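Revision sheet: structure tokens.
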Amino acid sequence: MEKKLLIAHRGNYCGRLKNHENHPDYVMRTLDLGFDVEIDIWAIEGQLFLGHDKPQYPIEKSFLSDPRLWIHCKNLQAMEILSNDSSLNIFAHKKGIVITTAGYLWSAPGEPLTKKSIAVMPELAPDWDIKDACGVCSDYVMKYKQ
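Predicted:
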């Protein structure tokens, strides 16, 4: 099996820890373990925040400089602010397949996959054949580590 990009969903890598998701320390710890991390970003009146359902943890833009971050923009202002920086890998989606600014296909559970696809949350589609994907984003990404 070809080595895949391993992306920890909101920092989770061995199961969901809802109270830690998107916390800057949790994200940094997961990066230190060698995983890429998908994070959720909001912008309110120019201030950036991490958080899934709402802006929770204020951050500086410099926090986003690690190229292993996959930045899910949760509102239009976040997209507007971050789209000016070509070094960031950003995307926005509700469902289906979207393209990230780094050229990857961010693919929701069960969607068709290509060699440019990231299979997102394969645990939600147990019969999904992800062998063609170049990466996996999951709360359980540790199980895909070779």
